[in-house]
From TrEMBL:
Protein name from the UniProt record: Adenylate kinase
Annotated residues for binding of AMP: 32, 37, 58-60, 86-89, 93, 134, 145
Domain of life: Bacteria
Organism annotation: Cryobacterium roopkundense
Role according to the record: Catalyzes the reversible transfer of the terminal phosphate group between ATP and AMP. Plays an important role in cellular energy homeostasis and in adenine nucleotide metabolism.
Chemical reaction(s) catalysed: AMP + ATP = 2 ADP
Main location: cytoplasm
CDD domains: ADK
Length: 197
C-alpha cells in the first residue's frame, strides 16, 4: 500500500519515472496530464473544456482537475495505493487531496521531487516536441509552463517538506540511473518496491 506523489518542473522526466515507479510498487500511475490529453484527443466534453488551457500552457481550473482525480482515485485499483504524477499542482489541489485521503482514512507515504536545471529541461521538451508533437511543447508555451510551475507549484514543496514527506532526486542522467536513485531513497524511508524492474 504505497501512496506517492511526483513533483517537478515540466521536462524533469516525471512521466517516464512515474510509469517505472508504478510498476515497481505495483500501483496505478495516475497522471492528470495523460487523462486530459486522452480526453482532448477523443474530443469528449471534458476534452473540449480543457484544450485551450493545455495548449496555452496554463493550468486547468482546480474544480475540473479535482473532480477527475476524485473519480480516478475512487476506482477499485487505486484503493491499495497509487502514484500521482502532476497532481496536486496548486494549494487548492493539495487541500482537495487531503480531504480525499482523510475520508479514505489514508495518508501519503512520500513526495518525490525530481529536480533538473532549466536549460536541460527546455532542451528535453523541445526534443519531445519533435518526437511527439505535443501542442504545448513550443518554446513560448514551455517558458509559460515553467513560470506557472514556479509560481503555483514550487511553493507546494515547502508544504510537503514541513510535513517531512519530500525526497529530492536529481533528475539528470540516464532514465535507469534516476529510477535507481528514487528507489534507493524510498527504500531508505522504509518504502520498498515489490516488483524488480
Ligand atoms: P503534464 O503532462 O503533467 O505536463 O500536464 C500537461 C498539461 O495538463 C499542463 O500544462 C496543464 O495544462 C494540464 N494539467 C495537468 N495536470 C494538472 C493539474 N494538476 N492542474 C492543472 N492543470 C493540469
Amino acid at each position: 500500500m504505497t501512496r506517492l506523489l511526483l513533483i517537478g518542473p515540466p521536462g524533469a522526466g516525471k512521466g517516464t519515472q512515474a510509469s517505472r515507479l508504478a510498476e515497481a510498487f505495483a500501483v496505478p500511475a495516475v497522471s492528470t496530464g495523460d487523462i486530459f490529453r486522452f480526453n482532448v484527443k477523443n474530443e469528449t466534453a471534458l476534452g473540449l473544456e480543457v484544450k485551450a488551457f493545455i495548449d496555452a500552457g496554463a493550468y486547468v481550473p482546480d474544480s475540473l482537475t479535482n473532480a477527475i482525480v476524485k473519480d480516478r482515485l475512487g476506482e477499485a485499483d487505486a484503493a491499495a495505493g497509487f502514484l500521482l504524477d502532476g497532481y496536486p499542482r496548486t494549494t487548492d489541489q493539495v487541500a482537495e487531496l487531503e480531504r480525499l485521503l482523510e475520508s479514505a482514512g489514508t495518508k501519503l507515504d512520500a513526495v518525490v521531487l525530481i529536480t533538473a536545471d532549466t536549460d536541460e529541461v527546455v532542451a528535453r521538451l523541445l526534443k519531445r516536441a519533435e518526437e511527439q508533437g505535443r501542442a504545448d511543447d513550443t518554446a513560448d508555451v514551455i517558458r509559460h509552463r515553467m513560470d506557472v510551475y514556479a509560481e503555483q507549484t514550487a511553493p507546494l514543496i515547502d508544504v510537503y517538506t514541513s510535513r517531512g514527506l519530500v525526497v529530492t532526486i536529481d533528475g539528470l542522467g540516464a532514465v535507469d540511473a534516476v529510477t535507481d536513485r528514487i528507489l534507493e531513497a524510498l527504500a531508505e524511508r522504509g518504502l520498498h518496491a515489490t516488483v524488480t524492474i
